[in-house]
Amino acid sequence: MKPRSWMFIVVMLAAAAAATPRRRAVLAADDTGSLRVESEPDGAVVNVDGRAAGETPLTVETMTAGVHRVRLVRAGYLENSRLVTVKSGARGMVRAQLTAAAPPLKIVVLEGEGAVNIIQPKTAVAPVIEVRDRNDQPVSGALVRFAIQKGKATFNGERALSATTDALGRATATGLAPTGSGPVSIAASATFQGQTAAVAIVQTNVLTAAQASAAAAGGTGAAGGGGGLSNVAIVGIVGGAGAAVGGMLIASKASNESTPDPCIASGVCGAWTVQFSPFLDVSACSVVPGFSSQGIVTDASGAFHVGWPPSNSFIQVDGTLTRTGINGTLRCVSTPATGHDLGNGVGA
Question: In a structure prediction context, what are the per-residue pLDDT tens digits for the chain, which is 348 residues long?
Fold first, then answer.
């Protein structure tokens, strides 16, 4: 081949090589677009086709035209994944409203929130909690720790107590005793299979029943976190038919009660202990010196009908326990001693 022919071929190849990058650039511009990704709330990690691209709000300036999988991940929210089509020379858009994930574990306070503890008679309301999973089902075998965070109280002389939830997912802080007046904050935490939950239970310690009455009037005896009646309901009983039955009473949920099925939805159903200060004077029924405490069992509506010792034939008690007090009627059933009728005693 002649030298001039070789030179012609070299010039043609060089020209073709020079044209190739420009042609590739045109092709690249025609085959790419961009993508904007936003989420509510911001701060979700964006993965495009399995590769991390940044956090929302995010703009990916250069993406190959076509279908891509975009995945958004943020702690405390459900994962959001979708397919998006990016067109050549255009900007695709992804806007995602993230859904908050249910906590894997939670604590429900059944007893003790807002309770009033009385130092002199050593009356305290033991916190009872229930541990539930993300499906709101009870978790048995969870490790629970109760700790006095603030205030003067102990669990059998200790500031902390450990327990394990039973078959109903419940645990009780036994041995609670107030040691000084003022607010008390009890931390309850639960651990199960690497999952944790925590809640604070607030109570109030007072010295006397009279102070407890004043505290209840101020609202510290409100309904607890479980949705039912607080463990402490303080009311007055008015005497009738010549009987001096004055004094305050304190109704507290019996600590050894197992809640029957009909009572689960009621905040006032079950076994209660009623304490009187200084005492309930029922001498008209030949009961001396009277009652310092007695028990009642209420139905789902809070109604009760009981007979109180020393003999069930001496005193008949009918009434209703509500979220704000007790309405009741006390009567002497006919006895050889008096046969008197105590008349009505209405809770104030």
Answer: 555 555 555 555 555 555 555 544 444 456 899 999 999 999 999 999 999 999 999 999 999 999 999 999 998 888 999 999 999 999 999 999 998 876 789 999 888 888 888 888 778 888 999 999 988 899 999 999 999 999 999 999 999 999 999 999 999 999 999 999 999 999 999 999 888 999 999 988 888 877 766 655 554 333 333 333 433 333 333 333 333 333 445 555 554 444 444 565 556 777 777 766 556 767 666 666 667 677 778 887 878 887 776 544 467 777 777 665 676 777 776 544 444 444 333 332
Q: Is 8 contained in some domain?
A: yes
**Could you tell me if 129 and 198 lie in one domain?**
yes
Cis peptide before 41 (omega within 30 of 0): yes
**How many CB atoms sit inside 10 A of residue 216's CB?**
24
User: 224 lies in a domain?
Assistant: no
**Residue bearing tokens 């929130």:** 113
- Does residue 111 contact residue 231 with C-beta atoms inside 8 Å? yes
Rounded Cα gap, residues 308 and 311, in angstroms: 7
Task: Supply the pTM of this predicted model.
Answer: 0.46
Helix (H, G, I), strand (E, B) or coil at 90: coil
For the chain, what is the domain count?
4
